[in-house]
Amino acid sequence: MALWLVYIAFDTPAARAVKPMIPDANRYQKEKVFLEYADSLFMDESHPEFQVLKGNVKFRKEDMFMYCDSANFYDKENRLDAFGNVKMEQGDTLNVFADKLYYDGQEEYARLRHNVRMEHRNTTLFTDSFDYDLLDNIGYYFEGGKIVDEQNTLTSKYGQYAPDTKDTQLLFDVELVNDKYVMNTDTLFYNTESHVADIVGNTIIVSDSSTVYTDQGWYNTDDDRATLYNRSLIVGKGGQTLTGDTIFYDRSAGFGEAFGNMILTDSAKSTILMGDYGFHNEKSNTSFATRRALAMEFSQGDTIYVHGDTIRTYLLMPDSSRVMCAYPNVRFFRTDIQGICDSLSFMSRDSMLYMHRHPILWNLERQVMGNVIKIHMNDSTVEKAYLPEYGMLGEHVADEFYNQLSGKEMIAHFDNGEISQLDVNGNVMAILLPMENDSTYNKLVNAEGSFLIVKIKNRQIEKLNLWPDVSGKVTPIYLAKKSQYYLKGFKWYGEIRPKDQYDIFAIPEAMKTLFSSPESIAPVRRIRNENE
């Protein structure tokens, strides 16, 4: 094999570098690859189609320069193969390094292999196999790679990077890592300038404070703010989960805002908060729901469903006890009790449920009304209902007849979900229809006193003790006047009683009328006299 020594003479003590002489007229032809420099150039007669270049080799293609230790230069085909310390240089912002380069000047396409590194401003790409389309200015890796900017490190099996737009597309086993969280997915679009990740497939984002599950949205890794779609799920470190049709999430602030079918679940506290709009703050542990708002508490067997136009939960310092507030137009349902009021609050500190403004509580066939009702809970079981300002109880007996009790203060004691005892204190008034042995009712008892205790067993009055200064009378029903049927201010509100957990969203007109009346128990139905 004969080698033609073209520019270097080896019989000298030291090889002399010679710059190839290229006419100036040809040096700036568009789309032409030019050899700028090499220490030596050989021609192999067995491969006359290329020149062998060695030592400090430098090529130019328009405004791009290519450097290497050695190269095979296919001048007529306008392409080259470069080896050792390969570098592609475009301006002062884009450099690509590799062990090997296969460059086609006609197609403007480069294939770089082994220890590839692209440096573009603040972004560095690492891979072992990299194809670079210089026409579209897009680079590709397909055997695994890594992209690093000042904010994040991204790895994937396949990746694209466009220096003009700074956009990346990553596929298969994608991982985005920074010092705050890790994002895993199979498809991700990311911009190395804005540091925004566009999520288009199943994605998990794990941090010390939360875990996010989503399949569509965007995440700004600079300020940790995200918009998530398709009922994404955020799981807080305390076990709370937030989902919705669309979620705006600020990870740094611990704030999630959900639009459309919001559901906030707190498994540790056995609660669910729902609404068409709502938010949750992980750091302050405050929550808010509105538009068909619903709160559920299911700590002990039975579940209570609470609806209001707005529902809020928050922690009360210094003991971090939980508070839930619902307002206005509140309706709630549980199998043992149901109720309505214009505002409701629950405090975990004393396990108290407070009902304000026209509260009504139902238990079986009994209805309790007052200016304020306080329900004492014990392990989610109703222990007693306390009416400190005024109380009135009604019990449907038959047709238009009701047992009725009222007084300045009333306490209803519960046992196994039913009222078992009533304590009435101050200005006691009673209308009772005792059941006869044949289970009929034939007399009406009107009584007044100062104090009253009623014992109830098997849903019937077992014992009644009224004292002192008792007065009253017994009247056969057929002789009783209509004015004796009802206590002043009594009305049976069965038509607005929540029937089940779905009925709590319906706001009957009678309930609206009641809530628009003065804030105290007052006659709603006019009592007819005996001549009517």
From TrEMBL:
InterPro entries, alphabetized: LptD, OstA-like_N
Pfam families the record matches: OstA_2
Annotated GO CC locations: cell outer membrane; transporter complex
Keyword Membrane: yes
Domain Organic solvent tolerance-like N-terminal, residue spans: 30-186
Protein name: Organic solvent tolerance-like N-terminal domain-containing protein
Transmembrane parts of this sequence: none
Record organism: Candidatus Limisoma intestinavium
Keywords: Cell outer membrane, Membrane
